Prior knowledge:
The complex is a heterotrimer of chains A (341), B (332) and C (301).
Chain A: E1 5-16, E2 19-31, E3 36-40, H1 47-52, E4 63-72, E5 75-76, H2 82-92, E6 93-96, H3 110-125, H4 139-156, H5 162-165, H6 175-187, E7 193-197, H7 205-222, E8 226-230, H8 233-239, E9 242-247, E10 250-256, H9 257-262, H10 267-275, E11 323-327, E12 330-333
Parallel strand pairs in A: 3-8, 3-9, 6-7, 7-8
Antiparallel strand pairs in A: 1-2, 1-4, 4-5, 9-10, 10-12, 11-12
Chain B: E1 3-18, E2 23-39, E3 43-47, H1 54-61, E4 69-74, E5 77-78, H2 84-90, E6 94-97, H3 111-123, H4 127-140, H5 157-169, E7 175-179, H6 187-204, E8 207-212, H7 215-221, E9 224-229, E10 232-238, H8 239-244, H9 249-256, E11 307-310, E12 313-315
Helix pairs in contact in B: 3-4, 3-5, 4-5
Chain C: H1 2-31, H2 34-51, H3 53-56, H4 91-127, H5 129-144, H6 147-158, H7 162-189, H8 192-199, H9 204-240, H10 252-260, H11 268-295
Helix pairs in contact in C: 1-11, 2-4, 2-11, 4-5, 4-7, 4-9, 4-11, 5-7, 6-7, 7-9, 9-10, 9-11, 10-11
Amino acid sequence: xxxxxxxxxxxxxFHTYDGVAKVxxxxxxxxxxxxxLGLVGETGCGKSITALSVPRLIPxxxxxxxxxxxxFAGEDILSKSEGEMENFRAIHLGMIFQDPVTNLNPxxxxxxxxxxxxxxxxxxxxxxxxxWKGFLPSxxxxxxxxxxxxxxxxxxxxxxxxxxxxxxxxxxxxGGMRQRVLIAMALAGDPDLLIADEPTTALDVTIQxxxxxxxxxLVKQLGLTVLLIxxxxxxxxxxxxxxxVMYSGRVVxxxxxxxxxxxxxxxxxxxxxxxxxxxxxxxxxxxxxPGMIPNLINPPAGCRFHPRCEHAMAIxxxxxxxxxxxxxxxxxxxxxxxxxx
Amino acid sequence: xxRLLEINHLKKYFPIRGxxxxxxxxxxxxxxxxxxxxxxxxxLGLVGESGSGKTTIGKCILxxxxxxxxxILYDGQxxxxxxxxxxxxxxxxxxxIYQAPAASLNGRMTVGQIIGEPLWIHEKLRGEDARDRVLExxxxxxxxxxxxxxxxxxxxxxxxxxxxxxxxxxxxxxxIVLDEPTSALDVSVQxxxxxxxxxxxxxxxxTYLFIxxxxxxxxxxxxxxxxxxxxxxVEVANTxxxxxxxxxxxxxxxxxxIPEPDPDLxxxxxxxxxDLSHAFPQQGCPFAPRCHAEKLASCDTVLxxxxxxxxxxxxxxxxxxxxxxxxxxxxx
Amino acid sequence: xxESDKRKASKRNEARSARFENFARGLYRFRSNRLSMIGLxxxxxxxxxxxxxPVIAPYPEDAAGKTRVTARLQPPxxxxxxxxxxxxxxIFSRVVMGTGLALQVGTVIILLATTIGVTVGxxxxxxxxxxxxxxxxxxxxxxxxxxxxLAIAISAALGKGIINAMIGISLxxxxxxxxxxxxxxxxxREEPFVEAAxxxxxGHMRIIFRHILPNAVSPIIIKMTTDFGFAVLTxxxxxxxxxxxxxxTPEWGAMINDGRRYFPDEWWIATFPGLAIWLIVxxxxxxxxxxxxxxxxxxxx
Lengths: 341, 332, 301
């Protein structure tokens, strides 16, 4: 099957006073239709930037793509004009972000915002069936239909009494409900890919569990393709099928979710998993990763993880490791592999 | 082993204002009749979601907020209403580590000044003497000597938190209130800070009140756990007991919601409906509207008291009546 | 001993280098704003003119009121670059000689207004309660009367003269600073680092002077800078209606008033002092904008 999304060797820089920050240094990522891929990593690893390079929402300047390709359903995204991108986003992408409070306008009701989203997606995408068939419907009728669709989206995202609550303002919704509204808005255009950037980070654990369950059920019901960006390995374990682990601008390991947790290969992935306080770890038994994330302006030469890595070898300081296969659908960028070499 | 801190029936209400004249129309019950004790040298976890009142309790103990009613005993002394002079002395005994490391440090001061400030306030130390102590403290928390003249914004979150820890240690406190000390940090750094806190506890005989929403971290750090829901304690027990046999339906739901990094973990996932809402019926159990357990008639009408359902295991739930053998003894 | 001295010296160097690093970063951001650099160059030019006025001015004695009956109302020429006024004084010399006065007037007004305003605002914002109410109502009274009218009234009551004019303007200028400082203090008071300062046992004075005010300095400096030009403008307005510096002092506002009757035929008498005022207001505004980029905490990394 052809890839839905293919990011190849993406290099991206930010120009700052201190110098040029090499934020992405050769990211490779592929997604097929129906994939639920978790992109995990810590602050500054470039996971959000990678995700935002698909809708091309990175401000340029100061950002600059210096190398690489991003293709979506065979189309080259980086060569599109700004106008083409607007249509592209409306037709193909849905996005949800971390903060459900600031992403809704407090001055408008949910109806106005959700209906606007539906109408916008229709006008840009014209993908919803039955539209523009033979006659130009009146604005009133359009809005009426859009509202019906909005209520339907609210039902789909588990907001009870959507037909009544649609007339309320965002402040009348709790954090979890607002995130559901945002998911509904993201789904308005029936997107091919849903990009969820830390969708549960600002929420309480019990609400997080609700939202993760919702995303899982949407995947099942609508066959949604999801790129879930998170720093929380537990969230990935609960909701994704595949995982890509990023460290300092590169994907260092990629594998099906179960395999990654049972059999992590890259020393960074291992360190990350060990750093989570799990059951049966006694006092003093938690192992962190020594040191801290590297400076992006003067990143360490070779493998950017080598200063924190207990297995660092001479070669790690000189060149960046290539991706090698370490199992079925499991790859890692580390000189420890392939083991027989 | 002695009780270092004892909280009795602590309440903190904030006025809700409204109406034409902006008068008080109701109370927001941030903390509503909370009692617990903390043994010297131990760590008590105070767990709850946002709005549960856990941070408010911490601030009441430091007297950064005035309690509405109730009693706070520190080392046997009633500190609920002490005056400014004694309060200053108290602040060399009880310290706090804050959730947002960057925001809790004054950006106009260097690391040396930040850590040295309490030394000046409490011991009138300055110059050479202060500097040696500051450098020693920096060494204890894992900062380097060359960081002395740097400003907080030049550091990563983990290091900023180390600065905050060094500032708290400067006064040689006995009790530290840790308010979500790692929730703003990355996992790999979180592990470093948690281990540092444990080392410091052993080294300086510290007692911790560990406020957190992250049960995984609490399980690793705490000897005892108290769960808060809407300003009330719903369950208290030893850490192992709470995680092995949670009794309160809310505790059960929270534990099942911990996102463990283990896809094979076969666990019944309890997803509770709705959100934390302060608009619950004033009689009855605050958790009743969201409860997934089979409800009793009394759930909606009678507030369940916090009682000893098992030896040293306190629960506030009608489904768990008092343990027969312990019903005579007042909960400790 | 020598060892510890060396260590101390190296420490001092580190402190200096950290401060220098911040300064360099600020300068970089300021320099990257071309308009504010133009403003700064304009201001440097103005200050140099003020310092070397007696050297630059071809007829410095004209500022003291020397008259030249033979050369009355001369248009700009090689001899009199900006022309001459009704009693034959060289406008160019008088504009140049008046530069220092304008800068002094602006400085005094702004410093006085800042002192009063920051004190009132800090007390009001930090104390809260009835004291806040009282101080803010007083501030409101000053703000409800149009500033210029009030300044005129106060100066008139105090009597003519540049000193009284400066006092009058300062007295209408401080409420803006009080309002700004109060709002800054109110929000800073809620910052976690202030709470942390309480937590380590810091007293009120320490919290105000060590924690709150240093973090409020940037917006206050920005306001001082942008207000400077307008303070000069207001002083000129008082001079224009005869309440400021008295003749023959080369005060720009009074000079414009002199030229008023001869406008537009002898346009140069009023135009060149006006341009000088414009230059000073404009340069400070440009600098204020640049400083905003440098000092605004939201722009800091």
